[in-house]
C-alpha cells in the first residue's frame, strides 16, 4: 500500500475518533459521577475534580494524537499520579479505572496499553496493601480489572483496524477510479485531438510540397487542414465541457450544448428533459454528456440535417438519452470517424449501460441508457 493511502487511513482513523469523542466524554462523565458518589471523601473528590479538569484541558486533545506521540503518555502519567492520592483517601475512587483503562487502549497500541492498564489497575491494590495490609481481595479485583481492560482493548483495537482497512480500501478505490478516468480521458484525446493534429501536420506538409508545382492543390490541402483544425477545436471544447465543474447539472450542460450547436451549424436544436430530474453521479453525467456530444458531432459531419432533437428522460432505474435528426442517415460501421461511436459504446458499456444507433432514410436516432 502506498504512503498516500496509509496516510489517508491514519487521517480517517483520527477523524473517526474525533467523531466518537463526545460519546467518550459522556462515558467519562458517567464514570466520574459514579466514582464521586462512591468516594465519600472531600479530598478524594477534589482530586477527582482535578483529574476531570486535566482531561478537559489536555486529555481530549491527547486522545486524538497519534499513538506514537508523547501527548497520550503525558496525559496518562499525570492521571495515574492523581489516582494514587485519590485511592489513598478513598477506595471508592478506584471506580475511575473504568475510564482510565479505556482511555489507555484508545491512546496507545495494545501492548503498551496493557502495561499501562495493569499498572493503573494494581495501583489501588498496592496503596491499600501499604496502608492497611489488605491484599487478597484488592488483588483479585485488580486482576479482574486487568482482564476486563484487555478485553476492552482488543475490541477497540479491532475497531481501529477495521476502520483503517476501510479507509485504505476507500483510498484505493478512489485512486483506481482516478486512474481509470485519466485513461479514459487519454483515450478521448488520442482518438480525436491527437489524430486530428497528425492530419493537420500531414496536410500542411503536403501543401508545402505542392506549393511550387500546383498552387491550387496546395490551397485545397490548406483548406482541408483548416477545416480539420476547426473540427479538432470543437472536439477539444467537447472534452473540456465533459469535465464540467461540480454543481453544473447535466440538463443545463445539454441545453448549453444545444445552443452552441445551433449557433455553429445553423441547424435547429431542441433539448427536452422528461421525468423527475435527480442528481446523478459525476461519472454518469460525463458519460451521457459525451454521448450527446459525439452524436451531435456525427450530425454535424454526416447527416446534412435541418433539425435535431436531444431528449433526456429519467425513469425509476435508468436515464435515457435520445439524439434524433432529420438528415440522410448513415451506417455506423462505414462512417469515417467511427472511432467516436466506438468510444461512446465503450464508455456507456463501462457505466453498465447500452447504446443503440438506428439509421433510416429519414434520419438517425442514437439511444443511450445508463443506470441512474
Folded structure, characterized:
GO terms for molecular function: phosphorelay sensor kinase activity; protein dimerization activity. The chain crosses the membrane at residues 46-63, 75-101, 139-160. The chain has helices spanning 3-39, 42-63, 71-89, 97-107, 110-132, 136-210, 215-242, 250-265, 282-303, 339-350; strands at residues 268-274, 307-314, 318-325, 354-360, 363-371. It has 372 residues and is an alpha+beta fold. It folds into 2 domains: 3-173, no CATH class; 245-372, Histidine kinase-like ATPase, C-terminal domain (Heat Shock Protein 90, 2-Layer Sandwich), CATH 3.30.565.10. The chain has a 5-stranded mixed β-sheet. A hairpin with a 2-residue loop joins strand 4 (354-360) and strand 5. Mean pLDDT is 78; it is low at 1-15.
Brief rundown of the structure:
This protein has 372 residues and is an alpha+beta fold. The chain has helices spanning 3-39, 42-63, 71-89, 97-107, 110-132, 136-210, 215-242, 250-265, 282-303, 339-350; strands at 268-274, 307-314, 318-325, 354-360, 363-371.
Helices and strands in order:
Layout: H1 3-39, H2 42-63, H3 71-89, H4 97-107, H5 110-132, H6 136-210, H7 215-242, H8 250-265, E1 268-274, H9 282-303, E2 307-314, E3 318-325, H10 339-350, E4 354-360, E5 363-371
Parallel strand pairs: 1-2
Antiparallel strand pairs: 2-3, 3-5, 4-5
Helix pairs in contact: 1-2, 1-6, 2-3, 3-4, 3-5, 4-5, 4-6, 5-6, 6-7, 6-10, 7-9, 8-9, 9-10
Amino acid at each position: 500500500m502506498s504512503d498516500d493511502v496509509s496516510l489517508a487511513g491514519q487521517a480517517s482513523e483520527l477523524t473517526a475518533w474525533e467523531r466518537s469523542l463526545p460519546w467518550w466524554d459522556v462515558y467519562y462523565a458517567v464514570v466520574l459521577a459514579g466514582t464521586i458518589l462512591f468516594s465519600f471523601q472531600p479530598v478524594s473528590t477534589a482530586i477527582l475534580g482535578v483529574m476531570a479538569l486535566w482531561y478537559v484541558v489536555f486529555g481530549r486533545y491527547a486522545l486524538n494524537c497519534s499513538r506514537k506521540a508523547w501527548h497520550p503518555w503525558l496525559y496518562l502519567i499525570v492521571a495515574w499520579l492523581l489516582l494514587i492520592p485519590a485511592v489513598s483517601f478513598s477506595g471508592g475512587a478506584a471506580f475511575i479505572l473504568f475510564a482510565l483503562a479505556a482511555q489507555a487502549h484508545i491512546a496507545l497500541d495494545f501492548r503498551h496499553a496493557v502495561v499501562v492498564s495493569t499498572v493503573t489497575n494494581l495501583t489501588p491494590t498496592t496503596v491499600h496493601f501499604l496502608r492497611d495490609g489488605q491484599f487478597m481481595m484488592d488483588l483479585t479485583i485488580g486482576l479482574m480489572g486487568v482482564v476486563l481492560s484487555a478485553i476492552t482493548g482488543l475490541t477497540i483495537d479491532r475497531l481501529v483496524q477495521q476502520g483503517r482497512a476501510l479507509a485504505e480500501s476507500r483510498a484505493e478505490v478512489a485512486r483506481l477510479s482516478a486512474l481509470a478516468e485519466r485513461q479514459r480521458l487519454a483515450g478521448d484525446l488520442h482518438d480525436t485531438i491527437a489524430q486530428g493534429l497528425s492530419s493537420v501536420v500531414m496536410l500542411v506538409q503536403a501543401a508545402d510540397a505542392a506549393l511550387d508545382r500546383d498552387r491550387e492543390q496546395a490551397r485545397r490541402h490548406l483548406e482541408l487542414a483548416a477545416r480539420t483544425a476547426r473540427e479538432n477545436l470543437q472536439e477539444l471544447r467537447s472534452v473540456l465541457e465533459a469535465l464540467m465543474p461540480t454543481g453544473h447539472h447535466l440538463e443545463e450542460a445539454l441545453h448549453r450544448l444545444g445552443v452552441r450547436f445551433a449557433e455553429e451549424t445553423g441547424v435547429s436544436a431542441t433539448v427536452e428533459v422528461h421525468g423527475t430530474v435527480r442528481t446523478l453521479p459525476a461519472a454518469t453525467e460525463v458519460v451521457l454528456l459525451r454521448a450527446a456530444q459525439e452524436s451531435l458531432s456525427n450530425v454535424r459531419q454526416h447527416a446534412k440535417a435541418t433539425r435535431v432533437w436531444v431528449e433526456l428522460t429519467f425513469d425509476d432505474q435508468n436515464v435515457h438519452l435520445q439524439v434524433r435528426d432529420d438528415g440522410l442517415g448513415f451506417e455506423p460501421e462505414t462512417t469515417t470517424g467511427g472511432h467516436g461511436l466506438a468510444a461512446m459504446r465503450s464508455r456507456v458499456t463501462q457505466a453498465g449501460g447500452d447504446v443503440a444507433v438506428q439509421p433510416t432514410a429519414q434520419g438517425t436516432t442514437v439511444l443511450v441508457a445508463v443506470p441512474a
